[in-house]
Design a protein that fits this description.
69% helix; 171 residues
């Protein structure tokens, strides 16, 4: 993970340069006044949505906790919504388009699934099980392959086998 962090400043610089290029291109096409107004309106909308998405995420988390459900789905959905609103609030046309797209339900579902997979890979099996609950995995015939997963429900020809898969090398 630390290896990837060294590219963050370079990535941020590239994003800023790309935002400037898009702003200039759109400004030349429709006028700089209209472009500036669009950036301002998107940022204002993003700030309003930031509050709404934050409250929505908090309510979903609390409702899941009070109902005794796993809060992972609500947490991930809230993170995706907050990221979309934050990108919309950041001044820029490109970030605004990405932010709006993260708030559209089909794209939000895809992003939520990606964030969930990334979270499950980065936390221990026990934490992933506590957040998201047991997962269903496919059982294949053949040589076993070590693959870290959380608690699992293994479905084998109609039979469900409850159990916990222990990750090699983890305590």
């Amino acid at each position: 993970m630390r290896r990837g962090l060294r590219f963050v400043p370079l990535g941020l610089l590239a994003a800023v340069l790309l935002e400037l290029l898009v702003f200039v291109a759109v400004g030349r096409a429709v006028g700089f006044g209209a472009t500036l107004l669009a950036v301002f309106a998107m940022s204002l909308l993003g700030l309003v949505l930031l509050r709404r998405e934050g409250m929505r995420a908090w309510r979903g988390f609390r409702a899941a906790a009070q109902a005794g459900e796993r809060p992972g789905r609500h947490v991930v959905d809230g993170l995706v919504g907050l990221l979309g609103a934050l990108l919309l609030a950041v001044p820029g046309l490109l970030s605004g388009v990405v932010g709006v797209s993260l708030l559209v339900p089909p794209v939000r579902r895809l992003a939520r699934a990606g964030v969930r997979r990334a979270a499950e890979r980065r936390v221990s099996s026990m934490v992933a099980g506590d957040l998201f609950g047991p997962r269903t995995v496919r059982v294949r015939q053949g040589a076993p392959q070590a693959q870290p997963t959380a608690e699992a429900r293994i479905v084998d020809e109609g039979r469900a086998i409850e159990g916990e898969i222990v990750e090699p090398g983890r305590n």
